[in-house]
Amino acid sequence: SRTRWAAAWVIAIVFATQLADLRLLVVSGSSMSPSIRDGDLVLTARLWLGSSVGDVVLVKRSSDGQLLLHRVIEEGEGWRRTKGDASLSPSTLL
């Protein structure tokens, strides 16, 4: 039945979220426009391999803990700089 199908999906999503650190988020803002727009749903997962220039990553801003979905534009040993596609300047150095 439809109820069982919906319950199965909810259980699968909760299980996957716990195991793989998956997050389903609603985008708030336009810093990644036009690739990712305000109101879009995004699914994120923790990657153990790290990131590369050009990847879209979810980072926590150290100043206030806000989550940012930005693109890696530069990286070095132990650090990376990210920026929203629609932003004029880089916003985070991690």
Strand arrangement, major sheet = 3-4-5-6
Structural class, please?
alpha+beta
| Helical percentage | 10-25%
Radius of gyration: 16 Å
Overall spatial form: globular
Low-confidence stretches: none
**SS summary, helix count:** 1
N-to-C CA distance: 48 Å
Overall pLDDT confidence:
85
Oligomeric state of the chains? single chain
The succession of helices and strands, N to C, reads: HEEEEEE
Strand content: 25-35%
Largest sheet, strands/sense/barrel: 4 strands, antiparallel
What's the count of strands?
6
In short:
The protein has 94 residues and is α+β, with helices and mostly antiparallel strands. It has one helix and six strands, in the order αββββββ. A hairpin with an 8-residue loop joins strand 5 (79-83) and strand 6 (92-93).
Structural write-up:
By secondary structure, this protein is an alpha+beta fold. Helix content is 20%, strand content 32%. It has 1 helix and 6 strands. The protein has one helix at residues 2-20, and strands at residues 23-26, 41-44, 56-60, 67-76, 79-83, 92-93. The strands form 2 sheets. A 4-stranded antiparallel sheet has the order 3-4-5-6, with no helix packed on it. The chain has a two-stranded antiparallel ribbon with strand order 1-2. The longest helix is centred in the N-terminal third of the chain and has 19 residues, at 2-20. It starts with a helix and ends with a strand.
Question: Which tags fit this structure?
Answer:
94 residues; alpha+beta; four-stranded antiparallel β-sheet; two-stranded antiparallel sheet; 6 strands
Sequence-ordered SSE layout with sheet pairings:
Elements: H1 2-20, E1 23-26, E2 41-44, E3 56-60, E4 67-76, E5 79-83, E6 92-93
Antiparallel strand pairs: 1-2, 3-4, 4-5, 5-6
